[in-house]
Amino acid sequence: MKYYDKLIFELSKSGRTGYSLPSKVSDKDSLPSSGNLWRQSSLGLPEVSELDVVRHYTNLSQMNFGVDTGFYPLGSCTMKYNPKINEEIVGQFNGIHPLQPLETVRGCAEVYEGIDAALASVTGMKHFTFEPCAGAHGELTGLMLMREYHFSRGDMGRTKVIVPDSAHGTNPASAAVCGLEIVEVKSKADGLIDVEDLKPLLGPDIAGIMMTNPNTLGLFERDIKEIAALVHDCGGLLYYDGANMNPLIGVVRPGDMGFDIMHLNLHKSFSTPHGGGGPGSGPVGVADKLVNLLPRYDKGVEKSESGIRVSGFHGNFGVILRAYAYLLMLGRENVRMAGKLATLGANYIKESLKDCYKLPIPTVCKHEFVFDGLVNDGAREGVAGATTLDVAKRLLDYGFHAPTIYFPLLFHQAIMIEPTETESLETLDAFIEVMRKIAAEAAEDPELLHSAPHATPISRPDETMAARQPKLTWFA
Ligand SMILES: *Cc1c(COP(=O)(O)O)cnc(C)c1O
After folding, report:
1. CB–CB of 281/320 below 8 Å?
2. Ligand 1 pocket: which of 265, 266, 284, 370 to mutate (most atoms <8 Å of CB)?
3. Separation of 265 CA from ligand 1 center, angstroms?
4. Which H or E element spans position 269?
5. Residue 365 in contact with ligand 1 by CB distance below 6 A
6. What ligand 1 atom has the least distance to the C-alpha of 134?
7. What is the pLDDT of residues 317-365, one digit of tens each?
8. Best residue among 133, 215, 221, 241 to mutate for probing ligand 1, ranked by most atoms within 8 Å of CB
9. Measured in Å, how far apart are the chain's first and last C-alpha atoms?
10. Of 264, 198, 202, the residue nearest 232 (C-alpha)
11. In terms of Cα–Cα distance, which of 209, 208, 285 is closest to 254?
C-alpha cells in the first residue's frame, strides 16, 4: 500500500491543522454560555494539513474509472466524451434559482424553448417535457401519459402494455410502477420482434407497446412500420425508449416510424458525464394528439390537461443545457455523423473479435452488439473455464472499463460492447488487442482470469453487499 492510500484518519496527527481562525472572537459574536449550545467534546475530525487533504482527495479520485481516464465501452449506456466547453457554459448558470421571477431568467426559458424545438426536429415529436430526471423517470411519465390518453377518451379497459423479451429492465419495471400489466412479446432467432407472436396479443385491453429501436441487441427493427400499424389498429399507442438514440440522431425519426410517445436520455446520447446514479435528464416527447396532456408550465401556471407532474420544477437544468450546447455545437449535419461513426466503431470491434468471442447474431449492428462469452474458455479437467465476468474483470488490469455484462438476458454469457463516436481508431485497436490477449490468456490459464483484477485498489468485492450495504462512513 502506498502511503497516501491510507485513510485520512490514519494520517491524522494531534494538533496539526490546515486552517487558521482569528484567536479572539468578540463577546457579541459568541454563543451564550447557557442553553447547551457549546460543543462538549471534540468532533473527532482528522487533524491534517491542507496538503494532506489535497492528496487524499486527489488520490481517491484516481481510484475510480471515468470516461475522462479511459475507454468505457459500456453497452446500453453510451459513455461518450463530454466536451469541456459544456462545463464552461453550465458554470455560467450556477447562480439561478427556480423561484426567480421569469424576467430575470429569460435566458433559461430560451434554452427550454430552443432545445424543445431541436429535439422535436430530430425525433419527429411535437413537444417535450423536461421534468423527468432519468430515463426510467421518463418511461414512467410517458406511460402515465399513455394511460391518461385512453382515460381522457373514456377508454378505461386498456390495462396491459406489451414489452419485448429483449427490453431494458426499466421498461417492465416502469410499466409495473404505473399499474399496468406486462405482456411479453418474443424475439425471433435473428433478434428482432416476432410479428406473428405479437398479433394474437393485440386487443381492446392493450394500452400500447414499449420498444427501443435499435433494440438492446443493437439491431434495427425492420418491421417497425407493420408493428406500428398493427398496434394503432387495435387502439394502442407506441412508446419509444430513446435512451439509446445515438445511432439514429439526424438519420431516422421515431415519429416517422409511428411512435406516439418517447423519452430521450440526454445523459447518454447528448453528452453529460453520468454513472453512479446521476445526474440525468429523460425528457418525454409526444405526438400532436397527446400534447394537451404533457406536463407544461407557462410563467409558473400549469398548462397541462392531465395534471401530471413528476418533478418539483423543470428537471435537471444543467443536463438540459449541456445537451443544448452539444447540439448547437455539432449542428444539423455533424450530429448525424456521431451515430454513423459510433456504428462504424461497433461493427469494427465486432468483426475484429468474432473469432475469439462467440457472436450469436452475426448481422451488421448499430451502435452496440452482444457477444456470448469466449470461443475457448480454457475449461479442462479440474479447471473451470473463464467466464464473461472474468473477462470483464481482467480488462480493468489493462486500463479499460468493463463492457456491460450478463445483459440482455437472452444469452447466458452476454458481453455488450458500445464504443462511442469520440474514440479514435488507435483506441479501438488497443481495446481489440487487449480483448484478444485476454482470450489467449483464458485458453492458456483460466485461473489467471478467475482472480483478476490484480492491478486495481480492490479486486472482487461482494457486489451485492457493496450495493446494498455500502460503507460510506469511517469509524475508528
Ligand atoms: C439507460 C437506459 C434506460 C434507463 O435510463 P436511466 O437514466 O438509467 O433511468 C432505459 N432504457 C434503455 C434502453 C437504456 O439504455
Report:
1. yes
2. 265
3. 7
4. helix 266-269
5. no
6. 7
7. 999 999 999 999 999 889 999 999 999 999 999 999 999 999 999 999 9
8. 241
9. 19
10. 202
11. 285
Are 327 and 335 a contacting pair, CB within 8 Å? Answer: yes
pLDDT at 300: 60
Contacts of 135 (CB under 8 A, 6+ apart): 170, 241, 243, 263, 265, 268, 280, 282
Q: Is the separation of the CB atoms in 136 and 174 below 8 Å?
A: yes
- At residue 21, the pLDDT reads 82
**Angle between helix 425-444 and helix 317-353 axes, rounded to 10 deg:** 60
- Is any ligand 1 atom within 6 A of the Cβ of residue 166? no
Pocket test for ligand 1, best of 170, 219, 316 (most atoms within 8 A of CB): 170
Contact 208, 161 (CB under 8 A): yes
Nearest CA to ligand 1 atom 3: 135
- Asked if residues 292 and 305 have their Cβ atoms less than 8 Å apart, the reply is yes
Rounded distance from Cα 25 to ligand 1 centre (Å): 54
Which pLDDT score, from 0 to 100, does residue 2 have?
Answer: 73
Tens-place pLDDT, residues 17-28: 988 888 777 766
Query: Read out DSSP for 198-261?
Result: HGGG-STTEEEEEE-SS-TTS---TTHHHHHHHHHHTT-EEEEEETT-GGGTTT--HHHHT-SE
Q: What is the mean pLDDT of the chain?
A: 92
Low-confidence residues in the chain, pLDDT < 70: 1, 27-29, 277, 297-301, 475-476
Determine the distance separating the centroid of ligand 1 and the alpha carbon of 282, expressed in angstroms: 9
Q: How does 132-158 read in b/e, with b if 16+ C-beta sit within 10 Å?
A: bbbbbbbbbbbbbbbbbbbeeeeeeeb
DSSP annotation of 306: S
pTM for this predicted structure? 0.89
Q: How far apart are CA 197 and CA 189, in angstroms?
A: 13
CA nearest ligand 1 atom 5, residue: 135
Q: Exposed/middle/buried for 198, CB within 10 Å: 0-12, 13-18, 19+?
A: buried
Please tell me if the CB atom of residue 135 comes closer than 6 angstroms to any atom of ligand 1.
Answer: yes
